[in-house]
Amino acid sequence: MTSRGTAALLVVLSLMALAAGGLVQRPLTAQEIITNLERAKALITGPRERVWTAETVKAALSGDKCEEGVRYRFRTDGSATEERCVDKKWQKADVQWSLSEDENGLIALLLGKEQYSATLVRGADALEFTLLKLPSEKTQNTLEIALRYELD
Fold first, then answer.
1. Are 79 and 97 in contact, with CB atoms under 8 Å apart?
2. In the chain, is it the N or the C terminus that has fewer CB atoms within a 10 Å radius of its CB?
3. Quick check: pTM over 0.70?
4. pLDDT of 89 over the 70 cut
């Protein structure tokens, strides 16, 4: 199987896991898989920007302190901020982002210098944004980042 075929298979498996509630603590209801690039961009950023959190984020109420986690702030101007919890404080890195369609018709996310296969699913109460990065070598694992944005 080609690496693109493997990427497509991983996206399908992730969608199946999402549908079964395997990647999220609270399964989505009334799911819709987003495939249109312009609609995906609008959902990722909202009117101006949106903060997406990984399920494992544990932040203190003060805002600057954390226990663990990663979150991403995507903006309509193509900029993003990656925030990682390191030594109980959020460390921020600003990057550029863009969406495109790969040769298999799947959404691809370029985040800084990293390329991911992306799946965006809209539920009744939340959006799920799953990023998959295939290993460049057989000895590496596939990286999966499951992000969530709660709808009002």
1. yes
2. C
3. yes
4. yes
Q: HSE-up of 83 (CA within 13 Å, CB side)?
A: 22
**Could you tell me the two tokens for 35?**
């495939």
Can you tell me whether residue 38 is helix, strand or coil? helix
pLDDT digits (tens, 9 = 90+) for 54-81: 866 555 555 678 888 889 999 999 999 9
Is residue 84 scored above 60 in pLDDT?
Answer: yes
CB 116 within 8 A of CB 108: yes
| Distance separating alpha carbons of residues 126 and 124, to the nearest angstrom | 6
Residue spans of beta strands (DSSP E) within 10-69: 32-34, 49-54, 58-59, 66-68
Residue-wise burial string across 77-116, b where 16 or more C-beta atoms lie within 10 A, e elsewhere: eeebbbbbbeeeebeeeeeebebeeeeeebbbbebeeeeb
| pLDDT one-digit tens code per residue, 15-58 | 444 444 434 444 444 578 888 899 999 999 999 999 999 866 55
- Scan for tokens 């991983």, then name that residue: 10
CA–CA dist 12, 35 (Å, integer): 13
